[in-house]
Specification:
Layout lengths: L3 E2 L6 E2 L11 H9 L3 H15 L12 H21 E2 L2 E3 L6 E2 L3 E4 L16 E4 L1 H9 L2 H5 L4 H11 L1 H17 L3 H18 L2
Length: 199
Amino acid sequence: MISETCPTCNTQYQPAPSKRLKTCPNCAHVEKYGETIFEKKWRAHVEKQKAKPHKKCLIPSRSANGKKKEAKIQAAKSKLKSESMDGSFTECGGCGKHFKSVDASHKVPVSQSGELAAVPANIRLLCRGCHTAWENGTVLELVKLHCFVEDMEYLAAWDWERFCNVYYRVLDCAADNPSKAVEAVLKSLTEIYKEKATP
């Protein structure tokens, strides 16, 4: 049977041979129920999905090696925190203030190097604000960290690509917003850069 296209809703349909008037089923459905056939089917589908019981998505457990590595990292962090405690407080390496609870921040991220994840020299105790600044902060926030130059020196030795990325950001900041703090840090970082880059 030849199908026709409705001029109103552009729906293709096969006209019923028994009917005198060739009406589009979709338009007739809208007139009768106030919604298209597709909208009716979609509503029925959504209601069916809501009626289904919710399945819990189970997170796959770590492998045996992954659990051992995680245990080593946690042990290194706990040891560093306990050694650095002054009474019930720990000094933040970024701002120098004392906090009851601090984060164990990795200089070289765990995703970048799993071998350095449990090395104490790669871990810096920072408060939450300084930790956020080290991970995602602007250059002006990074420059305020007391440990910034020292940690950048560590990056130059173990993660040269990340060191260069941050170093170029500091260069751009010094060109756009020159300040004594940025210039002082840039001078130290330039010395580290020249020392590492020179063969």
